[in-house]
Amino acid sequence: MHRYICIHGHFYQPLRENPWLEEIEVQDSAFPYHDWNHRITAECYAPNTAARIVDAGGRISELVNNYSKISFNFGPTLLGWIERHRPDVYEAILGADRLSMERYSGHGSAMAQAYNHLIMPLASKRDKITQVRWGIADFRMRFGRNPEGMWLPETAVDEETLDILADQGIKFTILAPTQAKRFRRLGKAETWQDASYGQIDPKTAYVCRLSSGRAIALFFYDGAIAHEVAFGSLLMNGERFAGRLLGAFSEDPNRAQVVHIATDGETYGHHHRYGEMALAYCLHVVESHEGAKLTNYGEFLENHPPEFEVEILENTSWSCAHGIERWRSNCGCRVSHRPEWTQEWRKPLRTAVDWLRDLAAGLYEFEAAKYTEKPWEACEAYIEVISDRARVRAERFLEAHAGRTRSAEEKVRVLKLLEMQRHAMLMYTSCGWFFDEISGIETVQNLQHADRVLQLAEEFTHESLEATFLSLLEVVPSNRYRNGKEVYEQLVRPNRVDLFRVAAHHAISSLFQRRPSQATIGQYEAHTRCFEQEEAGRLKLIAGLKTIFEELRIAFRKSSVSQLVRTMDKHFGNHSYHISDLFKDRQREIINRVLEADYAQIESSYRQTYENNYPLMCYLESLGMPLPKPLSVVANHIVNLNLKSELKRSDTNGTDLEALTREVERWSIDLDRKNLAFLASSCVKRLVRQVIEKPESVRLLENTVRVLEVLRSWQLDFNLWEAQNEFFLKRRQLLDRLASMKGPEDGAASNQMQMLRRLGHMLCINLDIDIPKEIV
Fold first, then answer.
1. What are the Cα distances from residue 531, in Å, to 283, 534, 542, 557, 566?
2. Average pLDDT, stretch 332-355?
3. pLDDT for res 189
4. What is the dihedral of CA 238, 239, 240, 242, to 10 degrees?
5. Rounded Cα distance, 258 and 249, in Å
6. How far apart are CA 436 and CA 520, in angstroms?
7. Which of 495, 520, 555 is the last residue of a domain?
8. Is residue 767 part of a domain?
9. pLDDT given at position 338
10. Which terminus of the chain, N or C, has fewer Cβ atoms within 10 Å?
């Protein structure tokens, strides 16, 4: 076999975590999900672990772990989030790499990535080395092996970066065809051939010889097909996708060729809905084709070493026509079509963070030298702590790399210095310059990491660095604000967290708990050593220090607000905090709790109005009159509320849903589709699990089928992915279990079997197909 196909997915999301809490706070734009990581995981990362192949009737006949058949990389920060929040998806990704090693001659399909997606050619050499070593170490910890390849963020490349990759044992990377400068055949005195504008054959591997004497293999993906996948309509049909790949081979039958593409992994499911299904079917067609074989880069490189050498165009990338200018100048690359907007902010913003980076690096080197002989080696090893925040891991790290530390205070200082260096790299994440405006969420995220650097650095310099940083931001233009300084002051600085604010968060939260003892607040732990409280009607006073509480209680019992304020001012001065200072998730939880009685009263009022006026509504209906607006609003609210309540029940009843559906139709209710779809997905998953536990229950089967029929009549866009997976994987056991109960004339068992098949039909599942190895 001389013809191979490889599809690479670059799976990555920018950091969204609060830099102080290390957790993502609620993001309303991702509704009905908590945040965009949860949403994209549901739309892409999870579906690709069990992508559907359907038969001619549209029923699921096979589940495919796409990761086990393609080449892929995950950003380390994203994979860390998936590990914490979706361990099922995380394990499926790791398992896919192990399966790919069996499939591809011991070569795993997972590739490493430079750690936090900064533009490597624009980074200092020190940061480049750390990015590569952190990427390798994180990969090794997760996948249990050394990576063969490494993905470069935005495929941005220069020779120094390639040399660092080669020096660290990386065998290959992937570039866009437009990043090749010239090439020639190895072993012959051939002249160089110009590769400008992508004039290079993407169907083979190349070797890039570096000035250091080292070398690295390069693969240049097929740009035309990749563009059709990412931005065209190729994912509308998996068979056409496969045909496009299979049709890209040259006529030479004796030459080894690999047709390969690279796109953002989110293309398969997030950018293109059901893209993971098109990918799964494409892989299925290729596997069934006698003229080509699936492979990954490591396997192809071992079997077909490069026959050509290549030189790269330095300082180029796959997403900027001007090289890497998108991340340092107003080059013209943008996302929106607002001609009045400018991207002149990119250059001075980079100047500002470059100043902060250099200051932090010098400060780190000077201060860390007090505790370790090799500060930068300690920094490179710090990935051990970043990837595992357990206290024992930190202690082990300090013992190995900061042996001069003696006291707990010194250990904390070392960790703060290392965190300063970490955030000094996170503030360069590429998305901060990719888009059109400095006040965009991605750039604000980078500036928050810069603020964290400032905060930590000032603990060592004992002087304000913020003023200088602000002066640099003041000359950064903005399309929405006066300048970068105003963006920082309004969108960044108010989010800064210190121990006072963490304590305030814990204290305010304590107002709504009985006897708080300790709490985990992101990466912080808060402990309550003293808890004193006093109540007077709806007023409540709590204090965490007994001596202060006694003073406050006197004023509280006298209902003397002025004395209370004077006492608090005496002890706390200007350190006053409000609900607005709570972190977002807890803030909303508390506000909803505070307003719970008001919400209940409003709901009761609506319900009473609905029920009292129901006869009138019926009468108006009999006259053919539309409902007056006030009654229509009330009916919409109450019927939607009833639907949600029914879907939340552990024993959702199909008959009750049918009755509510008649109300929807009768009063022309405008369904709250997003919320109902989200609840419907959970409801069906819950009912399917009940059926799996008790398939012999005719009542459960009938009710689940009825619920599904009702939900489909609503024409909701709800997600059956989890319910389908669980039913599909258990279908054989369910059929066997019912078959074992069936006697020669057992009508009940026959009815159960029919209902089970009916449920399979409702879930679009073919009940007569074997389960593939990679899904079990």
1. 62, 10, 7, 18, 21
2. 94
3. 78
4. 90
5. 8
6. 37
7. 495
8. yes
9. 86
10. C
Q: Is 774's pLDDT higher than 70?
A: no
Domain boundaries, position 149: 3-15+30-319
In a domain, 608, yes or no: no
Q: Given a cut of 70, is residue 346 above it in pLDDT?
A: yes
pLDDT over 50 (residue 775): no
What is the pLDDT, as a whole number, of residue 749? 63
Residue 362, CA distances (Å) to 366, 421, 449, 461 in order: 6, 10, 18, 11
Comparing 454 with 740, the larger pLDDT belongs to: 454
How, if at all, do strands 150-151 and 205-209 pair?
A: unpaired
What gap in Å lies between CA 252 and CA 4, rounded to an integer? Answer: 13
pLDDT of 448 > 60? The answer is yes
Q: What's the DSSP call for residue 153?
A: G
Residue showing tokens 């000032």 = 458
716 contacts 682 by C-beta, under 8 angstroms: no
DSSP line for 521-553: ETTEEEE-S--EEEEETTEEEEESSHHHHHHHH
Distance from the Cα of residue 251 to its chain's centroid: 42
How far apart are the C-alpha atoms of 381 and 192, rounded to whole Å? 42
CB of 123 closer than 8 Å to CB of 131? yes
Q: CA-CA distance, 261 to 231, in Å (whole number)?
A: 13
> For the whole prediction, is pTM greater than 0.85?
yes
Residue 494 neighbours by CB distance under 10 Å? 10
Mean pLDDT, range 538-555, rounded to an integer: 76
**Which helix (DSSP H) or strand (DSSP E) does residue 4 occupy?**
strand 3-11
Residues 6+ away with beta carbon under 8 Å from 608? none
Q: Is 257 helix (H, G, I), strand (E, B) or coil?
A: strand
- Residue 406 contacts residue 375 (beta carbons within 8 Å): no
Q: What's the pLDDT at 594?
A: 87
Task: Give residue 776's pLDDT.
Answer: 40
Do 112 and 247 have their domain in common? yes
Q: What is the CATH number of the domain that holds 238?
A: 3.20.110.20
Give CA–CA dist 657/711, Å, rounded.
Answer: 9
pLDDT at 769 over 60: no
What is the predicted pLDDT for the residue at 746? 57
Please give the angle made by the CA atoms of 517, 519 and 525, to the nearest 5 degrees. Answer: 110
- Among the listed residues 36, 112, 46, the one whose alpha carbon sits nearest the alpha carbon of residue 74: 112
- Annotate 138-174 with b (16+ C-beta within 10 A) or e (fewer): bbeebbeeebbbbbbbbbbbbbbbbbbbbebebbbbb
What pLDDT shows up at residue 747?
60
Q: Give the DSSP letter of residue 42.
A: I
Which domain-ending residue is among 536, 557, 574? 574
